[in-house]
Amino acid sequence: QLGGGGVYLLDYGAGNVRSVCNAVAVAGVSLNFIRSADDFDKADKLIFPGVGSFGACMHRLEELGYIEPLRAFIASGRPYLGICLGMQTLFKGSEESPGIEGLGVIDSTISRFQVPDHLAVPHMGWNGVNPRQSSKVLEEAGASSKFYFVHSFLALPTRGTAAWALTTTNYGIEFVSSVCKGNVLATQFHPEKSGQAGLRLIKQFLLQDSPSEAGSADMVVTPNPPPTNLAPRLIACLDVRTNDHGDLVVTKGDQYDVREKDSRNVRNLGKPVDLAARYYTDGADEVTFLNITSFRDSPLRDQPMLEVLRKTSERVFVPLTIGGGIRDVTDPDGTPHTALEVASEYFRSGADKVSIGSDAVLITEQFLRTGVKTGKSSIEQISHVYGAQAVVISVDPRRVYVASPDDTKHHTIKTQVPGPNGEAYCWYQCTIKGGREPRDIDAYELARTCEELGAGEILLNCMDKDGTNSGYDLELIADIVDAVSIPVIASSGAGKVEHFSACLRTAKPAAVLAAGIFHREEVPIQQVKQHLSECGFETRPVE
Ligand code: 1PR
Hints:
By secondary structure, the chain is α/β, with parallel strands linked by helices. It is built from 17 helices and 28 strands.
């Protein structure tokens, strides 16, 4: 056996590895990076957090000359932790990239998710795991915990995986959610994004000589456990901007007006990193930052915002989304940057997803005009490189009432909340630049087009409801959930716990988001979770 050089991370330059580094740092272990094929021989333990598509990942490993050293590392018996694609590449191949060979350590292939229509793909969020073998790592992590998943391809239980399956999980069908045999441990879920349970799992991997050590006599493995359930996510959203004194603050608008009614000062509800850390501790399943004035400035020059992300990712171990200014930009000195470059900088700084607002509207307009997928839009490029799950579309719509669907070319709904002149129908007009500019396009068409172009999730705000505490616009949310097969995040208007349960019950979004009530400490996150749990919804327990 070689080694003696500590724990190494295999990073081939895609996605957010910062979170894995931060999770390892929490365990008090310092990390080295594989920089060349020779480095594999130096590693005692190896962590491989693969991201992107199966084919792109294998292709990159091949280009770097890493495939044989990686196979040799695994065969050497030194401990290996694969995360997400770091698990899938252990297989012989994947339906995602036909004809491309995987490492072939596990004698089975990765399949496409095929689930009933009402289930969104990617499988995104917090789900449980059923142990299939006794395991100390899993026992220490907490086998009854929920872990964060985000994937569109999966390992089915087959003869080839039988000796490997550490856990299975259910989402429409049962799949293998982690594997463990000998020196190899690999998870489909992201331990680095799975809160305290994930941190414990990583710590155990780092502490133990062998990841396949059996659990204690207390750890019971049942042959036919009840199916696990995906929990609807509860997201805390922080609108961030510079106030009139030049400080970066969390603010919150009423129908997008973030200035105090009397003084017209920008409302200051706290410091971004501290608030995000508080929401993580309180049990938020995800945290979203929206850089709400970035349409004016170049986000790459916005070093304080990037620093907010870096600092947050050291303290917050759930998924982080950042929105604002994801588009092609030109610095004041004339230097151009593509949206992909802007997004890449955000990912390097600790973001797991980027959210695209104004640019998504302009891209949709162009696509509807030309019918041509150029492959060059921010949505297509970021989705291609980082995967659809990393691309969220933030929609800022407002209601436009009409007496009859014939009065507009847009997609209308019959509303229970008639307009000022008794109009029984409305459509939802998209806006850009933080709601300042209405466009001739509706939210339904926008959501469908963005999904077609490669978006993985919709963050659905509502300008009429934002900051009103009057409850979500259930009609809007139900309509968009129906329009797309990707997850929809319901946003704007939450004022009390019952608003969350009503939204999940009637409109069935994948996630519910709120801002103002959390910032003003009117309703704590724990209280929302407790209420949802009492109403029979699956929730991720707060630790
Ligand atoms: O257009 O790609 O640069 O992105 C700008 C982003 O900033 C968009 O996602 C847009 O929604 C957001 N934004 C811009 N201006 C404002 C504003 O408020 N003046 N905030 C703004 C949007 C809505 C949500 C809010 C929910 C929940 N705010 O962020 O968190 O409505 O609020 P509530 O629970 O208090 O009701 P681009």
